[in-house]
Amino acid sequence: MTAIMSSTGKDLKTLHRYLKTYWQRGKTKNAYLPKYSERGGKGKERVASGRKRGSPRKYNDNVGINVDELMQVIFGRRLKSITTIATEGRLSTHMTK
Predict the structure, then answer these.
(1) I want to staple 48 with a disulfide (CB 3.0 to 4.6 A). Which of 27, 34, 59, 66 is the partner?
(2) Span 31-37, average pLDDT
């Protein structure tokens, strides 16, 4: 460990953290990839300002809009009706694929 510490410039605590991460994540080459599942504010409402949230469009000049409370209600009702139809078996087979 001393040789690795001197060659990389990392301290012992950092090297132990790296090894622990490697072992806990299955000793694979992807062990050091970021854990995207632990990112973001799950369940938190985003506050919309005047600008559109998200990345700007690359191939289209349309600006897009933020989802407001009315749109949320409309989307929620529609999603609920679609899931109800799907669970009751009234959805045709070509739409479920």
Answers:
(1) 66
(2) 82
